[in-house]
From TrEMBL:
This is Bax inhibitor-1 family protein. The chain crosses the membrane at residues 26-49, 61-80, 92-112, 118-139, 151-169, 175-194, 206-228. It is a multi-pass membrane protein. The keyword Calcium does not apply. Keywords: Membrane, Transmembrane, Transmembrane helix. It is found in: Membrane. Pfam families: Bax1-I. InterPro entries: Bax_inhibitor_1-related. The keyword Membrane applies.
Length: 235
């Protein structure tokens, strides 16, 4: 596939189509991120996160079931956004995923509000800095990072296996696992951004935004976990 900077067989028209797709993708991403912040704030004020923490404390398999349900919803939303013909259906998939992420973050935000409220905005700021740097790298180097796809899939399966094992056998993964997952999420952001620049179908900006939003949310989750671990160790 030719890079968007070279034009390809259709010349300037192909470049303009890809450039418009990239703009539209980041508009969708911005709306998704703002919606995530707004919904999370509503959930926090309503006390949903605290209620979910109480439910999840009922047994070690409750959190595993919660994570499993989230993965199913995420897969369905991604499938819908990637395969729907109309932009409206793609937006439905993106909206479902934003709502699902807001739900899964609710107990973590509730816990952070108790341990270290300042960790939440700090984690958001750090995540934005990291994502900004990775985005600049992808756009400035014009390099195709699609070769990372296989490695990221294997890494993702290993990470899921480690999380499931920690729940079943009752051991803590620790701060180093969170640090590794931040690096993994960074790789996902770089991979998704590269796909948006070079490969992703130009008629699916909502689907592209969903993939990138998922990678950013993964990074935010583990950055916040690192900050909470550091705050707990200082007490």
């Amino acid at each position: 596939m030719q890079e968007i900077y070279e034009g390809g067989p259709s010349g300037g028209m192909a470049v303009n189509s890809r450039a418009e797709f990239i703009r539209s993708t980041y508009v969708h991403l911005s709306v998704a991120m703002l919606s995530f912040v707004a919904i999370s704030a509503v959930f926090h004020v309503a006390g949903l996160g605290r209620a979910m923490l109480s439910v999840l404390a009922g047994g070690k398999y409750m959190w595993l079931a919660f994570m499993g349900g989230f993965m199913v919803v995420g897969w369905l939303a991604t499938h819908l956004a990637d395969n729907a013909e109309s932009n409206q259906k793609q937006l439905v998939g993106l909206s479902i995923y934003v709502l699902a992420e807001s739900l899964i973050f609710a107990p973590l935000f509730a816990l952070a509000a108790v341990i270290s409220p300042a960790a939440i905005p700090a984690a958001g700021f750090i995540t934005l800095l990291l994502v900004g740097g990775l985005t600049w790298t992808a756009f400035s180097t014009k390099k195709d990072f699609s070769f990372m796809g296989g490695m990221l899939r294997i890494g993702g399966m290993v990470a899921v296996g480690a999380i499931i094992a920690s729940v079943i056998f009752g051991f803590q993964l620790g701060i180093w696992f969170s640090a590794i997952m931040v690096v993994f999420a960074g790789g996902c952001v770089l991979y998704d951004t590269s796909n948006i620049i070079h490969h992703y179908p130009t008629d699916r900006p909502a689907g592209a935004a969903l993939h990138l939003f998922a990678s950013i949310a993964l990074m935010l989750w583990y950055v916040l976990r690192i900050l909470l671990s550091l705050a707990s160790s200082d007490d």
